[in-house]
Amino acid sequence: MPGFELFGDLERAQVNDVLESGVLMRYGFDGARNGHWKAVELEKAISERMDAKYAQMVSSGTSALTVALASANIGAGDEVIMPTFTFVASFESIIALGAVPILVDIDDTLTLDPVKVEKAITPNTKVIMPVHMCGSMARLKELKAICDKHGLLLLEDACQAIGGSYDGKPLGSYGDLGCFSFDYVKTITCGEGGALITNNEKFAKNADHFSDHGHDHLGKDRGADAHPFMGYNYRISELNAAVGLAQIKRLDDFLSIQEKNYSTLRSAIENIPGVQMRTVPEQGVENYSFLSFFMPDEQTAREVHKKLGENGVDGCFYWFDNNWHYIKKWDHLKDLTSLGKLPEEVRKGLPDYNNMDTSQSDHWLGRTISVLIKLGWSEQEVHDRAKKMSDIISSVTVEVAD
Ligand SMILES: *Cc1c(COP(=O)(O)O)cnc(C)c1O
């Protein structure tokens, strides 16, 4: 998945444009910048590639989620439905706005279960936020139907699935809002950076203002801008945007390398008895950044994961034990440990995260192993890896059968 693996001359050339002009900020300084508007160009490239009317660059994927929610006027008391398996950023961005994270079980897609989502809806629900974990997507058609029925917004966290698609649409563009991360380990990187996309003009305008202290960007210089509402600084720098501009042009090349490596590994293991591949919804195309599969039970999954590691198959994740991607070990979030006091109104509205029934999520994630697909593997390395994975998984499943 990591774009940093193939970082090189194209990225350097883009960054040098910025360094030579000396204008590291995305707004203003028109005369000094030698015509370089890297963040603006990257927004154009993203909106074109992702088939969305508007794109807003920000400083991270976490910022993108926060700005996306804020742009849709989400605030205190509003409930946002998110999955139990995600990155902590989902929870953080919701609570940062004083809104209420409602955690809902995953299913065999490894993201939101639409049946559980519908049961979790209350009069305060405003947004359904599926997270397209590990390169594949939620059942978007079902989630969209629920949103339409209840008058809710669909916000796709496509931070780990950029370049995938659903029903012919790029992931992130199916819902009302979509978010991407370009942090250092994502499919394409800016070093740090993120983006949100939307076809909604009002959300786009709000995002543009909110991510830059409420500036409306209509003045002839920054001092002449009006401030229709309060904002914050979620800006991306020109240096980071320059890296992203080089990388987005390489996205389709990266995806085809990932697909090739993924396919080799997948065909080596998918027919081993006891192995069940993660479900990709019909009409969905993964971005192939991970290969995820289920073992028959938790014990076998733990055993396979351990043996893969011991035998040098790196980049294998057993998310069930991970303390920033799965609710089971999110102690600081479940206990609401914060530096300052959370407002009483916010605290009172939150569910008791320590006493939730997550047995359905445990059932799937306890058996899941994900293998990170790298861009830099040689053909030989992919084949060696496929062989090792197949041998290890077969030996463990045979042991269990005995
Ligand atoms: C990486 C990631 C984010 C946050 O992105 P940052 O750029 O690291 O802030 C949000 N959601 C998911 C699913 C991610 O993987």
From TrEMBL:
Indicate yes or no for the key word RNA-binding. Answer: no
What domain of life is recorded for the organism? Answer: Bacteria
> What keywords are annotated for this sequence in UniProt?
Pyridoxal phosphate
Quote any Pfam family the record assigns.
DegT_DnrJ_EryC1
MF-aspect GO terms = pyridoxal phosphate binding; transaminase activity
**What's a single GO BP term from this record?**
polysaccharide biosynthetic process
The family annotation for this protein states: Belongs to the DegT/DnrJ/EryC1 family.
| Name of the protein in question | Glutamine--scyllo-inositol transaminase
Q: Which organism is it from?
A: Galbibacter marinus
